[in-house]
Fold this sequence. Notes:
This protein is of the alpha+beta class. The protein is 18% helix and 40% strand. The protein is globular, with a radius of gyration of 15 Å.
Amino acid sequence: MASRLNPYISFAGDAKQALEFYKEVFGGDLTVHTFGEFGSETPPGYGDKIMHGMLETSSGFTLMGADNPPGMERTPGNNIAVSLSGDDADELRGYWDKLSDGATVSVPLEKQMWGDVFGMCTDKFGITWMVNIVER
Length: 136
């Protein structure tokens, strides 16, 4: 899988409805995973909320989104991050190393409960980046 760069939008509890709307607009294939799918680590009241959703269209568009988890700040207008993802660990770790230099790291780049290596930081220019390395 080649690395990809795309927007990642956080929602205030209505990610499923929003992603279904964008599917109606752009077409394509939508996959969603709820917090509840991951069992014991589900925050209270979040069992049916979207932990990760991805819309891929035949035009080559990729849009990702999720409901904002508890404890993470969400400000309308500032609720979009840039996502880098793929399976080339060396390439993606290289991007992470450069992006996180001088950044505020909110999630260290490490193995997560869904099985991939993931990290999130806000760079020195105020842009939030998410890096997800698919583990096979």
